[in-house]
Amino acid sequence: MDYERIKNDIKTGIEDEEKIEFQKSKILKKLSATNEQWSSYRWQLANRFTRAEDIAEILGLSQEETEKIALVGKTYRYAISPYYMSLIDPDDNSCPIRRQAIPSVHELDDVGELDPMDESGWTPEELITRRYPDRLIIKVTNQCGMYCRFCQRRRLIGEHDTHASGEKLQNAIEYVRRNKEIRDVLITGGDAFMLEDEAIGWILSELRKIKHVEIIRFGTRTPVTLPQRITPGLVNTLKKHHPVFVNTHFNSPREITGESKKACEMLADAGIPLGNQMVLLNGVNNNKYVVRKLNQSLLTMRVKPYYIFHPKTVKGTSHFWVKIQEGIEIMESLRGRTSGMAIPTYIVNGPKGLGKTPILPNYLLYIGEEKAVLRNWQGKCFEVENSV
Length: 388
Ligand SMILES: *Cc1c(COP(=O)(O)O)cnc(C)c1O
Known about the structure:
By secondary structure, the chain is of the alpha/beta class. It has three domains: 2-105, no CATH class; 119-359, Aldolase class I (TIM Barrel), CATH 3.20.20.70; 361-388, no CATH class. Helices cover 35% and strands 15% of the residues. Strand 7 (303-309), helix 16 (324-334) and strand 8 (345-350) form a beta-alpha-beta unit. Helix 11 runs parallel beside helix 13 and helix 15 crosses helix 16. The chain is globular and about 75 Å long. Pyridoxal-5'-phosphate binds next to strand 2.
């Protein structure tokens, strides 16, 4: 029952709307912009915060804090959409949105690797990563609405936003056409929805000409960091090519706002099943009640929690790392206490491309020829017959 006591202290963005609205009006004033501009994703992209002084002004940071942001920015770029900026609580130094968006000096700690998953070693064709027999990912851009501080593909973010050329995309699609065992194509980046509707429509119609492609999935964080991107035009483009799935990436209940809810609902109304891939991050969501609140809130907007990823040992992200025990404890805390629908699979990625590997708390205590001994979510043990 602890959750009942604590849940109101873990605020969703909707529950902290007043403060977020206040931040939004501050940002609009600074940029001399209107509500109408705010709701345009092009405006959001063109006005991303990329200067430490501007961030400092909105959050009321000290000179020292501002200099640190500028210093880290020399190594790792940052760009924060005005929308995502408005979610940062200026009164909370440990705000989970701030932690995900604002550069930290810990990024300069020299541990970890640039490409721990060895994606570059699993590239049969430019833009493609293929680790599994029947499915692959195509990275169509390196652009994002916001550059997450824990990004697993930091090495590709670089200084400039570039979409893949038509020629490279064509080659990637040809690879899919040649390899008849590929039945599931995952379009990601960067952020797949950074492409224009026309480009997305073209990729989809090319893939749909390939008989063996059964499902198409998009990986995008735009519902979270740039919900204005989910427009009627985009949704209409997607729904012409069903079955299309979208996996998005909420990490914190504070990311659940009126705008992100609307974005998810537009996608869901177009018949697109929505999944969430959370990354377990120290100081953001390594707390069982935060994860429960997040997952339950996601279900209310028709987003099914799909995966919780254990953080990868990417260089420049060590302050986000957690122990595997923390992930197991979170999984343990969910089962029985919330809907099975709110329980994702916890995944540790094998190094060097060994792949997604699930971890569960142990419920099977013994299994023999005649009997098995299990424990339930409350720790009560029971025996079941196993002699068929
Ligand atoms: C994550 C990933 C996939 C998709 O994995 P699912 O478990 O099917 O969601 C496919 N290919 C690569 C290279 C991946 O990293």
